[in-house]
Design a protein that fits this description.
With about 180 residues, the protein is an all-alpha fold. It has 2 helices and no strands.
């Protein structure tokens, strides 16, 4: 009688573990399905982010070219202002004074243009670096999601193997010897 009770108890315990293991296999399968949706969502965010990085790269290149041109223009304006000053010193007429003031004003505006374009380059560089950082974060997130999927797949395979082993043990304990 004790043997029968023990066998019955052992069978119930095995069935309980099989049921508990089956739940965890189902839970792992659901978790895997949820995780498998993440890479697609991340890739959907990554594509526009890559386009943004490329766009800021182009914009930065154009802004740097524009800054270079403004610097060349400022040098030309400086030369023109110094030339106008020399001419005004050589002949102090109203016309030479007016030309000197215009050249000086042109030089000040050219310097202002260089400063503004420099600030623009700085702003674009900052946004470009932020876009690259955001892209790197998304790539890291994608890699982590892929690693999580691999981990859950391994966990699921182990759980399924354990479930099969328990089922075999339960079947072996149920068969009369």
């Amino acid at each position: 009688m004790n043997f029968v009770k023990r066998a019955l108890l052992l069978t119930m315990v095995f069935l309980f573990f099989i049921e508990a293991q089956a739940q965890s296999v189902v839970e792992l399968q659901q978790q895997l399905q949820q995780l498998q949706r993440q890479p697609a969502a991340i890739i959907d965010k990554l594509d526009p982010q890559e386009e943004e990085v490329v766009a800021y790269g182009r914009k930065l290149e154009l802004a740097r070219d524009d800054l270079g041109q403004a610097e060349r223009d400022a040098e030309d304006a400086k030369k023109a202002a110094s030339e106008a000053l020399k001419q005004h010193k050589a002949s102090t007429s109203q016309e030479s004074e007016r030309a000197m003031r215009l050249a000086d004003h042109g030089y000040k505006m050219a310097r202002r243009g260089v400063a503004n374009r420099g600030k623009r380059v700085d702003r674009i560089e900052s946004r470009y670096q932020q876009a690259i950082l955001d892209q790197q974060k998304l790539v890291a997130k994608l890699r982590q999601a892929e690693a999580d999927i691999r981990f859950v797949r391994v966990k699921l395979a182990k759980a399924q193997l354990q479930e099969r082993q328990r089922e075999r043990q339960a079947a072996a304990s149920r068969t009369p010897q």
